[in-house]
Amino acid sequence: MTGMQMPSGVHALVRRTHEERVMRALQENGAMSRGEIARVVGLSRTTLSEITGHLLQRGAIVVVDTDASRREGSGRPAERLALDPASAQFMGVDFGHRRVHVVVADAAHEIMVSGAVRYEDTATWGTRTALALELVDRLSGEAGVHYGALQGIGIGVPGPYPAPEGAAWPRATAGTTVLRPAPEGVDVAFAERFDAPVIVDNNTRLAALAEAISGADSVADLVYVRLSDGVGGGLVVGGQLVTGSSGLAGELGHVTVEPAGRPCRCGKRGCLETVASVPGILAACWEFGLRLENLDDLADAVRRAHPVVDRVLREAAGALGRVVGAATMMLNPAKVVIGGEITRLAPVLVEQVAATLAAEIFPTASAGPLVAAARLSDDDGAIGALAAVFHSSPLLARYPETADVKGRSDAPDSATEGAAHVRP
Amino acid sequence: MTGMQMPSGVHALVRRTHEERVMRALQENGAMSRGEIARVVGLSRTTLSEITGHLLQRGAIVVVDTDASRREGSGRPAERLALDPASAQFMGVDFGHRRVHVVVADAAHEIMVSGAVRYEDTATWGTRTALALELVDRLSGEAGVHYGALQGIGIGVPGPYPAPEGAAWPRATAGTTVLRPAPEGVDVAFAERFDAPVIVDNNTRLAALAEAISGADSVADLVYVRLSDGVGGGLVVGGQLVTGSSGLAGELGHVTVEPAGRPCRCGKRGCLETVASVPGILAACWEFGLRLENLDDLADAVRRAHPVVDRVLREAAGALGRVVGAATMMLNPAKVVIGGEITRLAPVLVEQVAATLAAEIFPTASAGPLVAAARLSDDDGAIGALAAVFHSSPLLARYPETADVKGRSDAPDSATEGAAHVRP
């Protein structure tokens, strides 16, 4: 807070608090009308107009367009406000097993650049990181954009993402903050390169967050499962991504569904992953004499309504439905989302999960959760990483105050000492 | 915030923020040494000493004792600080099926009065509420204490506690705030009577919160299950009690464990409750020819190491272990707590849950959650309700500002350090 010119008195404090809530709502949600902002931050239209008036005047926010194109019915179109798009950039990076995706968005949540580069699945983290940084440069050069006001970087990595034992969290690096340490220093490489805070998490969990907050019907409680080479999951509870006591939360794929089932790569037997992952589904088809090599073969068999495939998919979805049923009894989510390319190829999966889930929950529960296929594709992991950045409280955009914003310290404990030097 | 005498400038704002964090830590945790406070709120010892000096001088906090009696090893005993005990009271109320417990604690978390009164399980909520209010009056009269500065009331009620459809939340009543509407207006009755904010929740969930935060080794992520006439549960995730999208979270007792099992009162079959509740365990003993009528009979059979009882208890605990195993893979809790009187009578339950759980989680997870019997008994529900009040952010004690701090010359010397900076 050092370096801010703050008018004295309680009125200024209250206004500042209101302003921060408006700025945060715009950072989290992108462009919104005044009515939407008032609802989200819980201010009256009158108070809100005063606040947005100040912010518009200072250039902290701008009018980006009207909601005419999105509006249903008649009535005067409302202006949509957003953080000044040029005031900040946010980067999302998604490291998959064989490629990295990068997106950069402006403060109004518009994607400025986006791209991907492939690597071998044997590539080291050093190689992956170098390729990702080159990609960022190339995208910047091609589009003629600069990341001079990069506010935060979200990075998704594959696999469970536990905090290593004894790791300091958060750890500071290069004058900035890395919220959780990442494999082989990918976090430090990005933080140093862009001098911006970095968030790293498992990319399936980031996808869960993106599903929870994307669109107009965002939900605070969501169970997300992704079926691919493995079965990953992510939980959003009370609007927050659940990490667990040692970063291992969300492993729905390793809940036991068949105690005497196939061995799982995790060392257990009969995990959900052994029956509901793509390899698990293909293996079950083989057991019934139907040899399918890959997803394309499976899609073809689904189109031909092959009875073995239908049976295998329904059994896999039944097991998945029992696991998300247990999750639903525990967490009472508003929505259950099933992701992974296979759910697009085989809609029966989501149908059967919904049917099994309905049988697993309280008959008295008037309405169970909505069960739906993922909105974002597996290639949208970088959007999930971006969502995490937009939603992370330490990363609130530093918006223009009356004077400069230089020389501020982010270290909470030094704030007292520092503040003593800037009294007006 | 209006009406406060607030010195101008950033320094005061920062100090105020630090003070609020210290006050909140003391409200949530009761008496603590300066070292403990510094750790919890993340301030340096120097900054903290300045803050506690201000607060001691104003009388907002007091020195209650030293930690000599709790301290291991040698070294000078540290003073323990707390909110001024007389500055506030907090009430916990636990409505069971056949009795209501009430406790009132002061701001230092010391229990001032405590008592219970019984009713028939057919008693209406009107009767129960009237009996509870009479009990509060009687306790007050007997102990000669008054609730003149009651800051909040926590009320536990049995059974699932969903927010009724369409209910406004929070709803205002009698110039105060009821955070969630309760059965038959018990919330409104207490709020009107004491003019204090009321929190209502399922009493098993409140017990979960109390287990998570009680003692020196509080945890932020906890799975709680209580075995009694039914099987109830509560989840604490990231330090917050999980309610779910419609207030139904925590129903671990109705996760299906035997698809073809006994019918459950919820309308499903083979719920965990049908095998791990006390009636479920007694029924299973009957099926093996051992007729036990109640918990006393069961305790007796456990003492005699009856093989049927051992087998039934291990099977019940195995089913429970699989459910908390699934919960553990999803939520990665630091601790799993099993409550209910039966866990005290039959320690084998907790042992078997721990063994089954160990087999259900990642072999690679270096350490699974601690599995333990509940610290608080079923009769301690009012303590859970109290914990919810201490932890509820809207209920931060209104602590004395510059005005009402007269007659406080007994502040220890160490507290005067920062006094010169306090503006009158």
Q: Tell me the structural class of chain A.
A: alpha/beta
Kindly estimate the percentage of residues of chain A that lie in beta strands according to DSSP: 15-25%
Overall number of structural domains of chain A: 3
**CATH homologous superfamily name of the largest domain in chain A?**
ATPase, nucleotide binding domain
Order of helices and strands of chain A: HEHHEEEEEHEEEHEHEEEHHHHEHHEHH
Region (Disordered) (chains A, B): 401-424
Biased composition (Basic and acidic residues) (chains A, B): 401-411
Protein name (chains A, B): ROK family transcriptional regulator
InterPro entries (chains A, B): ATPase_NBD, ROK, ROK_cs, WH-like_DNA-bd_sf, WH_DNA-bd_sf
Account of the 3D structure:
The structure is a homodimer of 424-residue chains. Chain A is of the alpha/beta class. Chain A has three domains: 10-68 and 79-85, Winged helix-like DNA-binding domain superfamily/Winged helix DNA-binding domain (Arc Repressor Mutant, subunit A); 89-205 and 381-395, 2-Layer Sandwich (Nucleotidyltransferase, domain 5); 217-374, Nucleotidyltransferase, domain 5. In chain A, 39% of the residues lie in helices and 19% in strands. Chain A starts with 9 loop residues before the first helix and ends with a helix. Residues 1-8, 162-181 and 393-424 of chain A have low confidence and may be disordered. Chains A and B meet through helix 1, strand 12, helix 10 and helix 14 of A and helix 1, strand 12 and helix 10 of B.
